[in-house]
Prior knowledge:
The protein is α/β, with parallel strands linked by helices. The protein has one domain: Ribonuclease Z/Hydroxyacylglutathione hydrolase-like (Metallo-beta-lactamase, Chain A, 4-Layer Sandwich). The protein is built from six helices and 13 strands. The protein has a seven-stranded mixed beta sheet with strand order 6-5-4-3-2-1-13. A six-stranded mixed beta sheet has the order 7-8-9-10-11-12. The longest helix is centred in the last third of the chain and has 9 residues, at 161-169. The mean pLDDT is 95.
Amino acid sequence: MPTTTDASIRLVRHATLLLAAADTTFLVDPMLGAPGDMPPIENTPNQRDNPLVPLPDVDLTYDAVVVTHRHPDHFDEAAKAELADDVPLFCQPEEADAFVEEEFTDVRPVDDETAFEGVTIRRTPGRHGHGELAERMGPVSGFVFEAGASVYLAGDTVWCDDVERTLDSYDLDAVVLNAGAAQFLEGDPITMAEDDVAAVRSSTDATVLAVHMEAINHCLLTREELRSAVDDVLVPDDGEDVRL
């Protein structure tokens, strides 16, 4: 079993996290807009403006930013406006040019692995849905952060061989899953539903956290439904801090 560490993960909202390790804090997938700033995700069952809920009262102090992919619920217009243009910004290689075009000056695409302030960062693959729909959703990445603690942020992916291989490849202390069973009017969910989370839970001894719920209109799986369906998974509320 993983041992106790001094790392922590605070859920801000949706997939926006503050990951602290080795005295370094990463702001992950910043979606910083006010409720209703974005239109609904199209072709989905629940047509409500996004985000659905406000940001909690959380101190957004950080040393670097990590963006798993540039869908607007992971990097929105408010984040573009509020982030300092010289913040160290880690991303997948396919999207580095877009950040440079937005005049971020310290963009650090992660091909395989890199390091920052005592933390090793390794990029991992995933599948943002099933079949042809996953291909249309574009590339997505997860990241493993290692600094005493080892934390896997799976990103927007369903249960797949890539996730299973990542779980098998690292001695993980924590796994953070983007749940919510995000759904279009056709096709299967494009983020983890109950069965996906259960598959991860049965495949690792690490602490498992599920986020990415109740903030965007196409995420239909609620926290209470997931808590009822899968045992031994932490489902934090917005603003909640989880120490490993």
